[in-house]
Amino acid sequence: MNFWGFTPEYFEQTELMFSDFVKANYDSIKAEFYIPFAIDNLINSKSASVKVLRSDAKWFGVTYKEDKPLVIEKLAQLIKAGVYPAKLWK
Q1: Burial code of 41-72, b = ≥16 C-beta within 10 A, e = fewer?
Q2: Which of 44, 71, 84, 90 could form a disulfide with 78 if both were Cys (CB 3.0 to 4.6 A apart)?
Q3: Are 4 and 37 within one domain?
Q4: Number of domains in the chain
């Protein structure tokens, strides 16, 4: 699974890319602006670098409404174990 964290410069650098993407795809309801493609473009142009952080943590996805009960259960387990804060937004 990929999890991206960006500095404010990323958004400044990709603003033009996104504007061009919207202009090129204004009539395509299924068009997507892929973050990995933007990152690849920035790396190849020497405008950015990427640092990979590894984790042994297990992930679980939240894609469908049917995923909600499992996610609630897993978060409760992580909170009980002290791995995840009970109040994330203090």
Answers
A1: ebeeeeebeeeeeeeeeeeeeeeeeeeeeeee
A2: 84
A3: yes
A4: 2
Phi-psi label, residue 22: left if phi above 0, alpha if psi -120 to 50, beta otherwise:
alpha
46 lies in the same domain as 62: no
Each residue's pLDDT tens digit, 6-51: 999 999 999 999 999 999 999 999 999 999 999 999 999 999 999 9
Exposed, middle or buried, 81 (CB in 10 Å: 0-12/13-18/19+)?
Answer: exposed
Q: Same domain, yes or no, for 62 and 32?
A: no
Domain range enclosing 26? 1-53
Contact 87, 49 (CB under 8 A): no
What length does the chain have? 90
Q: What is the pTM of this model?
A: 0.62
| 17 shares its domain with 43 | yes
71: tokens are 């996610």
